[in-house]
């Protein structure tokens, strides 16, 4: 039986429609995360919860800090650079408009240890087989690495960089592939962890022991999976839709959440939906690299 961890505390009380993509910005120490449909980038002081807000005129699937100022981002139209000015609407440079179709968008994204951004794209209605996995290094156009998915979601790598993990949310599965870090190439994808129909795996992060922390949308919990794909711990959440998570070097897990699709009764019962939570779990992260370009 899996161990049960303590319930997290609210770090940022906010009404995010779909909070997602938490990442520690090594440049500032802040926790960055997004509200996908509202095109909002939040940056949170992890010690105080103080949060700044920047809005962009597009959907934001996820962001990654750059080596310089600003951000790389997976956006509705493809891949972009974001400016980093204070207040209001900040600069948006769509550098790789690989998704011109109005019914498509990018979803979750993360950088590998060489600073390439990997992101999943999908349709607005999550048509089976329409999801794709993309890779962008900023030096040229992105490339499609895998097709035939439905909702590509949480992405991560093993501590040694030999394996890549990708969630296909509405297929209720995490898949794993061999990964060539030098070339950014993947092998054949194989099942790593499956959930019963009706359970919805979402975003994830990987810790230094090679375990995966998986947010369960609609499941009121985050699950910790062993490197062999076995459930070893559960983290109860006070909201129904935890969406993704990130670890810091002090062993704190940060969990985003969403209000999307909840009716008035559910929002009244779980008013902290859309907030960001924090809990000490004693696990440290596989470092997430900044975007290299």
Give a short account of the largest sheet: 5 strands, mixed
Please tell me how large the radius of gyration is: 17 Å
Low-confidence segments: none
Shape estimate: globular
> Strand tally, please?
26
Structural class by SSE content: mainly beta
Q: Which strand order does the major sheet show? A: 1-23-22-21-20
* Total discrete domains: 1
Q: Helix tally?
A: 1
- What is the share of helical residues? under 10%
The CATH superfamily is known as TolB, C-terminal domain
| Top-tier CATH class | Mainly Beta
Provide an overview of this structure.
The strands form six sheets. Strands 1-23-22-21-20 form a five-stranded mixed sheet, with no helix packed on it. It has a single domain (3-280), classed as Neuraminidase (6 Propeller). The chain has 293 residues and is mainly beta. 2% of the residues lie in helices and 49% in strands. The mean pLDDT is 95. β12 (117-123) and β13 form a beta hairpin. The chain has one helix and 26 strands.
Architecture blueprint of SSEs:
Layout: E1 3-4, E2 9-12, E3 19-24, E4 31-35, E5 40-44, E6 51-55, E7 60-65, E8 71-75, E9 78-82, E10 92-96, E11 104-111, E12 117-123, E13 131-136, E14 143-149, E15 152-157, E16 163-168, E17 173-180, E18 185-186, E19 190-194, E20 200-206, E21 212-217, E22 221-225, E23 231-236, E24 242-247, E25 252-257, H1 264-269, E26 276-280
Parallel strand pairs: 1-23
Antiparallel strand pairs: 2-26, 3-4, 4-5, 5-6, 7-8, 8-9, 9-10, 11-12, 12-13, 13-14, 15-16, 16-17, 17-18, 17-19, 20-21, 21-22, 22-23, 24-25, 25-26
